[in-house]
Amino acid sequence: MSSKADKKQKVSSRGSARWRAAQSALAAQAAEATLPASSESQAEPESLKEEPEPILEEPEIQKEELQEREVDVKPLFLSRAVLTGLAAATWTEEHDTILEHFAQDPSEPILTIFIDPCLGLKLGLGMPVQTQNQIVYFIRQAPVPITPENFEATVHFGTVRGSYIPALLRLLNGVFAPQIFRNTTWPESIRNHFASHLHRFLACLTDTRYKLEGHTVLYIPAEAMNMKPEAVVKDKELVQRLETSMIHWTRQIKEVLSAQETVETGENLGPLEEIEFWRNRCMDLSGISKQLVKPGVKHIESILRLAKSSYLAPFMKLAQQIQDGSRQAQSNLTFLSILKEPYQELAFMRPKDISSKVPRLISLIRIIWVNSPHYNTRERLTSLFRKMSNEIIRLCCHAISLDRIFEGYVISSKEDLQGCISCCHAWRDHYLQAVQMHTQFSRWGWVLDQTSIFAQVDAFVQRCKDLIEVCDCQFHFARWEDGKQGPLPCFSGAQGPQITRNLLEIEDIFHKNLHVLRAVRGGILDVKNTSWHEDYNRFRAGVKDLEVMTQNLITSAFELVRDVEHGVLLLDTFHRLAARETIKRTYDKKAVDLYMLFNSELALVNRELSKKWPYLEPYMAQHSGQAHWVRILRRRIDRVMNCLSNAHFLPHIGTGEESVHTYQQMVQAIDELVRKTFQDWTSTLDQDCIRRLETPLLRISPEKAGMLDVNFDKYDTLRGSFPLCLSCL
């Protein structure tokens, strides 16, 4: 005797034969495009014929297996499953398990079968999460296990193709609605009540289905189409249902007529969206106009006219407005179409190149203003110019890369931001110029709401300036230039390592603040994002703290400065930070201290010059030694002055100008002292000595070709005196 598990395994092994039988039945159904009622009864005998004859076993086991085969409902489901590609799909044991669970568990309300593009054949106890092109559904109508005997009464099944809403509308209009409206067996009250709600549901479903495609379609109830108006008028309930449909038509037409206000008040739309709106509106209104002359609509109008319905007059008035609106939409579309090509060209241009195209666009809008019979109102022209501002902002946003800004590409990002600011300013300037020209040379007044037109442009310009400040902060506090960090400055002295650590700490704090700003909620370039102001102000507060820390760092770095050269080196290191107003005050103060060191150096040199008898080395002559000593003092202050002169980054301050003036006076005094020393020396000599100074010390040898001879004056050599020459000093 085999176990019960073995018996189940034998039954499941025959599932493949049943699956092939169900597939063959499915192919026949697809060819006939019908679902035969006896398909499940035919599928099982064929599968039993294909099965091999079982090995003779004991009679009890054969009876149990036969009972299990008789209660197998799988062919009943498979024979009713109609899906494209189902014949080539692979059926697995997992599918058997899900199908058996649905059949035996009364708490499961629905089973769906569909073919996923990636996963293949899928069975699910519920609707699929993702939209599928085709779905076969089985709905349990009673909480009982499903058997072959109760399958027809318990299971409701069908196939949904395409989108769910269009499929539902097709099913209701093609299958259920005709049967319900032709049914005369129901009680009159129940039939009227159900038909009224069904009409209302079909009207809403039709409206929703075509709104997905941007169209407006009127639902025409088919209940009274084959009846004469005189006969329909006698049925008050049917007349009320037709009035309900006309009320729904009136509501639809009102929505279409009021849709214009939505696009006119749209804050993010551009001129191309305006053109597209009028194109769709023209198509929609013309489509409604064609529907209003359909026989079904005219038939209902005639019925309600005989019934003297109060809803007919408002509907006819709106129908006339539809005709007028269609002509108006066609006119507006004709004039607005001249803007399409110029605005399409802007989509491929950089912000810095857009300004050259703005005058032509303004001229085209002026043409619409002057010549359009319906689009020349103040509100519509203001809205069109505001949409032009939105288009310029959108193009500028596409040219700005926030990732590059926050990744340290500060130089190129600032160029892009400056280009966007220049584009917005050029747009405003061209507009104001056009206003002036239009006012002077046209009889049409140009009175538009300028604040409304440029409100978002001004906000966007300020947002660009904020981002430029972010770029400057990265350059100042993090040494970012264009995607790369500059070298870390090297500080000398005992405090050099500590100053370097403090500088790195400032950079680390700045990067944390920058990361918080980058992760702000909402779009940074979205001018309607009011949270940006809070986040940016928080970032600015952090930057102010870093400015105070930098001021303290500069002050501590200058504590050990004892000479001008060292001070100039430090000021060169902190020069990039001097662009910030707060740090600039400390920077200028340290520049004043630097010039004070220079003044101290000048004072020391002046004190040395004021000595009556300077110290000279014993081997130096009196006059030449004194001149050499004075020249050394001048080289001392010249070296410092050259260092200051080459420091182009030093600010121009009054103290510096005074120091330079003192230096120039001291240089003149030194030069005068050297000349006076020379004159004092020459006064002790005769004229021949002065003349001998022009004699060269070397000459070409007259005796040996190509050789040089010493050309010392023999007389002066014997006397032991040496000439004094200013050039030798």
From TrEMBL:
What one GO molecular function would you report for this record?
A: dynein light intermediate chain binding
Q: Which residues form the Dynein heavy chain tail domain?
A: 239-714
Q: Show the segment(s) annotated as Disordered.
A: 1-67
| Low complexity biased stretches | 16-45
**Transmembrane region positions?**
none
Q: Fetch the InterPro entries from UniProt.
A: DHC, Dynein_heavy_tail
Q: Which GO terms describe its cellular component?
A: axonemal dynein complex
Gene Ontology process terms (BP): microtubule-based movement
Protein name as annotated = Dynein heavy chain tail domain-containing protein
